[in-house]
Amino acid sequence: MSLALKQSYRSNETISKHEFEKRYFDLMDQLRIIDQKLSTKTDAYVLNIAAKRQHTIVKLHHDIEELQNKVIKEKQEESHKGAQKKRVSLPSLKWFKNMQLSRK
């Protein structure tokens, strides 16, 4: 790199304003193209990550809904079984209480 700089300083060749502008605009076009490619790749990468996270969020939301439904069903079954147990246990308690009174 330093050798190229030394050679450019040593040469007495000059370039015209038109040639300089042409090279300058070509360089600017190349930089613009590189920037567009980098921006496109970055956008695609970010979009991919966002889509994966959204998929994970939707899956977790679905799992939470399933667990909530299971809990609700278990509570309903438990309350239904508890109501059946109360019905069964209440007559036996009355009978037991009556037996104790009759023994006195």
Shape: rod-shaped
Element order: H for helix, E for strand: HH
| Number of helical elements | 2
The stretches of 5 or more residues where confidence is low (pLDDT under 50) are none
Task: Give average pLDDT, whole number.
Answer: 81
Query: Radius of gyration from the CA trace?
Result: 42 Å
End-to-end separation: 115 Å
Q: How many domains comprise the coordinates? A: 1
Instruction: Please outline the major beta sheet.
Output: none
Q: Briefly note the structural class of the backbone.
A: mainly alpha
Number of strands: 0
β-sheet strand percentage = under 5%
Helix fraction bin? over 70%
Task: Break the fold down into its secondary structure elements and pairings.
Blueprint (H helix, E strand, L loop, with lengths): L1 H9 L6 H87 L1
Compact overview of the structure:
This protein is mainly alpha-helical and 104 residues long. It has helices spanning 2-10, 17-103.
